[in-house]
Input
Amino acid sequence: MFVLSVAAVAQMPTGANDGKKIENSTLVFTEKEAEKMPIAVGNNLYCAGYIQKGPISANVEIVGADDEKDQHIYAEGDALYLNAGSNNGVKVGDMYSVIRPRGSVNSDWTSKSSLGVYVQEVGAVEVVNVKPEVSVARVKVNCSVVMFGDLVTPMVERESPMFVKREPLDLFADPSGKASGRIVMARDGAELIGREMIVYLDLGREDNVKVGDYLTVYRPLGTGNIYQKVIKESSIDNREDGYESDRYEGGHFSNQASRKKGATAGGSTVTTEGAKSRRPAGLRKVLGEVVVLNVMESTATAVVVRTASEIHTGDYVEVQ
Output
């Protein structure tokens, strides 16, 4: 059996869940039915956004609205003016994606010198009237409010990777040795990331990453604590005096202290950091799994499909 949350069901195409029963806020599918289901639809497929390294080529923008005297933001059903018309090849029925470049992405989480510009995908519009220099487009769907100055670019149909039967997430999986990078950002600026959320990776075509690739999310073992400084030494000394009775005492040892070094336990107390120094390098904590939805030159957009723990911006990813 496979289950989807109500949030995921809400994004599915109309009719995709016909005949299914929702119980405990989940929709249950058989394995055969799940194989026909896309991993991402709607908002997560067409409004995921991306980080583009090259220049933004779109030059058609939203310059007016039918109700601009009464509105400042626009949504589904509103009529907008584009500064391109029949002289620019615009035709009735043309579909455009609405995008909003937000600025250069500068991240401490990547070793790449330049990632590019973050482009927010706002929604989609359909041209309903064309004049020589301008055209009228109606908002078909919006994932965020549409505003004057937003750019439009011809819509490109995207295909989502499909659900496949996979083994349970291996929490102790060894590194694959394939391309690895970091989560440099999440959609809407989220810093604590869970299932079905969109993230941006510093891996792209130059790293041979492809749409549909599964990546393990992890961090080096013992890192990621929200506190800047974690106590490294033993919190309790090996000897604790003054609480035992004078008559029946059995020894001056704390029951919660670390062991003493040496074959006769005559050395110093073993510390946490000392014990950790004697383990092999490269141990890691597996946090979850993401699937790539869109790939640019230096970056990729992915959706979180499985989690074993909270995921943070800055966590590592590795192609499986």
In short: The chain has four domains: 1-37, 50-154, 163-232+279-320, 234-270. Residues 58 and 131 are 20 Å apart (CA to CA).
